[in-house]
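Q: I'm building a small set of examples for a reading group on sequence design. Run inverse folding on the following structure and report the sequence directly after it, with nothing in between.
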């Protein structure tokens, strides 16, 4: 009998991994590293239970991929062993390129390179290590495989990635509004003209999925306090990078020091294999260990930022429907300068502004189609016939300003 390893997952139950390529990949240090990267970054500062990791998520997504493939096979669609294995490997490795604290530091460790691109680099290296046994996975991940529905299971607006993280994040945060019926949606998967679709009777389950996604963004992913904490973390890395590049000898782990002192590009990663190997050693521990030490740094700006974050003295955040005016930023920087007795340039590290967007369904990215009884496929917003779904396709933007709460005590 084929040996299997069993994981007891709190969200999906028992997840079975057969010995072979998938098992060897799960055991690889680059995948095991995902145990040390939290799925939701700094969200535990708001929802204390959100301590699950990227490793949890990748196993869950792979489990759902296994179920989706089995459903499609039972409906008469031919998916070979190599294709199924490729799809499972693609979803297992889809997040391997995430850096510390996941999306929070997406462009702070390596700028201009989204985690999907770094995942591709990792998969390419693993393919060489495993004697080109990841060729199907790479083709599916890159959307270069003829059966396009396999890529859509990995990356689309109704993929197993989203089905897992919504249900998982809802479970660990305790935000029940994010709970979705993943089993029913997967049971309703179909393929039409080489495109992943859902049977028409899944329309309301998909509607619930989109509503849940929108609510999870406002309540979890774009939660005001989480945004404030993430901006503090980003500014800490900015300050540390500035100090490192201006002659200050900061304590860091070796890998973090490399990325603080260099701004690597894709060509750098491709030309120097050691850069990716160094990135593969970075995780949440590198960042938090450094921040704990920096809290006592001689640089006042870095010290204040770090001590405030680790002791959860988080910034205030104001959100509005219009962009933050430059005059307002200057006003708040001046208040920080007065409060901390720092230069106006240093005060800028205590202020953050930006914009966030919530769009539960983006038909410009890809569409979610449902298949009618006559075999035709139409967009889910038309199949539902409800204005609510059309509303979910519209982007809602909020502009924000973050600043230390202490400046509110200054006389006006």
């Amino acid at each position: 009998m084929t040996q299997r390893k069993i994981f007891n997952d709190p969200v999906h139950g028992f997840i079975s991994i057969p010995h072979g390529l998938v098992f060897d990949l799960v055991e690889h240090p680059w995948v095991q590293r995902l145990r040390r990267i939290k799925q939701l970054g700094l969200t535990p500062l708001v929802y204390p239970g959100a301590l699950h990791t990227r490793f949890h998520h990748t196993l869950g997504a792979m489990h759902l991929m296994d179920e989706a493939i089995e459903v499609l096979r039972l409906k008469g669609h031919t998916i070979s062993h190599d294709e199924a294995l490729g799809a499972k490997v693609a979803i297992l490795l889809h997040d391997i390129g995430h850096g510390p604290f996941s999306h929070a530091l997406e462009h702070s460790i390596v700028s201009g390179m989204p985690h999907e691109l770094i995942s591709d680099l990792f998969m390419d290296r693993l393919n060489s290590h495993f004697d080109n046994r990841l060729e199907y996975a790479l083709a599916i991940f890159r959307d270069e495989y003829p059966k396009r529905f396999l890529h859509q299971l990995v990356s689309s607006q109704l993929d197993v990635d989203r089905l897992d993280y919504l249900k998982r994040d809802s479970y660990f945060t305790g935000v029940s509004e994010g709970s979705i019926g993943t089993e029913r949606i997967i049971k309703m998967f179909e393929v039409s003209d080489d495109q992943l679709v859902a049977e028409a009777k899944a329309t309301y389950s998909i509607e619930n999925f989109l509503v849940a996604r929108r609510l999870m963004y406002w309540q979890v992913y774009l939660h005001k306090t989480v945004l404030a904490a993430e901006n503090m973390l980003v500014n800490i890395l900015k300050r540390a990078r500035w100090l490192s590049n201006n002659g200050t000898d900061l304590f860091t782990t070796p890998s973090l020091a490399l990325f603080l002192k260099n701004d690597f590009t894709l060509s750098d990663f491709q030309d120097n294999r050691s850069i990716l190997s160094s990135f593969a050693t970075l995780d949440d521990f590198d960042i938090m260990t450094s921040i704990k030490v920096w809290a006592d740094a001689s640089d006042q700006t870095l010290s204040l930022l770090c001590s405030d974050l680790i002791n959860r003295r988080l910034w205030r955040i104001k959100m509005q429907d219009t962009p933050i005016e430059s005059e307002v930023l200057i006003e708040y920087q001046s208040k920080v300068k007065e409060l901390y007795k720092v230069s106006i340039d240093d005060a800028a590290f205590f202020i953050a502004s930006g914009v966030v967007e919530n769009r539960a369904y983006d038909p410009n990215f890809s569409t979610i189609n449902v298949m009618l009884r006559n075999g035709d496929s139409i967009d889910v917003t038309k199949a539902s016939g409800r204005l609510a779904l059309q509303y979910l396709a519209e982007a809602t933007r909020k502009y924000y300003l973050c600043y230390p709460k202490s400046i509110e005590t200054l006389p006006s």
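Residues 4-222 form a domain with the Hypothetical protein af1432 fold (CATH 1.10.3210.10).
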